[in-house]
Amino acid sequence: DAGITQSPRHKVTETGTPVTLRCHQTENHRYMYWYRQDPGHGLRLIHYSYGVKDTDKGEVSDGYSVSRSKTEDFLLTLESATSSQTSVYFCAISLGQGNTGELFFGEGSRLTVL
Amino acid sequence: AQSVTQLGSHVSVSEGALVLLRCNYSSSVPPYLFWYVQYPNQGLQLLLKYTTGATLVKGINGFEAEFKKSETSFHLTKPSAHMSDAAEYFCAVSEHQAGTALIFGKGTTLSVSS
Questions:
Q1: Separation CA A103–CA B34 (nearest Å)
Q2: In this model, does residue B112 exceed pLDDT 90?
């Protein structure tokens, strides 16, 4: 089984503070993704990565940045959190080395911005 | 651009009844199609996928889906609902190209009553 660890699993922060969510994988998967899940919107892609230092934007990338300095870690940063970024954030990996479209998801990180 | 429309945000069935969850997609190239399930407070799990070949695909827990190109549909069915099927279900599409990410529908919550 692919292993994905998201941290923190729960976080409450205040508007204007920076927040970093971490996604760690235990296998050598090339493609990694960050999605956010909101009621009535399903999952929306924020950013994804197709290799170390190779990233691209998704449909809701404004206000978010990402970094991937190692294959196993994909970081999502909110430079200045806003209440609209209150959400559940899921990291996912594409199984295998190619982008097969078959994703394996982490358990999610619930972020509340007050 | 790809998109997914799930008809009905909430479907209710009785235990033992047919489950039908509807999904229509839009894609300019041959799609990969997926159904994922999410149980409360968990990440998403793959139910089944269509890539190429047989248009009727079988997944876990007795679910199946049929790819109908002429109708641009990929509806999910199960002959007999079980209480444990209560969850949120997401249809997703991606293109047959490396580097493209999954685009999800907004989800359908399935309720099963005894």
A1: 10
A2: yes
Write out chain B in H/E/C secondary structure. CCEEEEECCEEEEECCCCEEEEEEEECCCCEEEEEEEECCCCCEEEEEEECCCCCEEECHHHCEEEEECCCCEEEEEECCCCHHHCEEEEEEEEECCCCCCCEECCCEEEEEEC
* Residue among B44, B98, B104 whose CB faces A99 most closely: B98
The H-or-E segment that residue A114 falls in is none
* Share above pLDDT 90 across residues of chain A, in percent, rounded to a whole number: 78
Query: Quick one: which of B52, B36, B35 has its CA closest to B44?
Result: B36
Q: Which of A45, A46, A66 shows the shortest CA–CA distance to A55? A: A66
- What is the rounded CA–CA span in Å between residue B71 and residue B15? 29
A50 and B99 in contact by Cβ < 8 A?
yes
Cβ distance A58 to B9 less than 8 Å, yes or no, reads no
Q: How confident is the model at residue A2 (pLDDT cuts 50, 70, 90)?
A: low
Out of A31, A56, A105, name the one closest to residue B44 (CB).
A105
Nearest-angstrom CA–CA distance, A24 and B109:
30
Please state, for a pLDDT cut of 70, what percent of chain A lies above it: 93
As a whole number, mean pLDDT of residues B105-111 equals 96
pLDDT tens figures, A8-35: 999 999 999 999 999 999 988 889 999 9
Please identify among residues 38-57 of chain B the ones whose CB lies closer than 8 Å to any CB of chain A. 42-46, 49, 51
Q: Are B100 and A43 in contact (CB < 8 Å)?
A: no
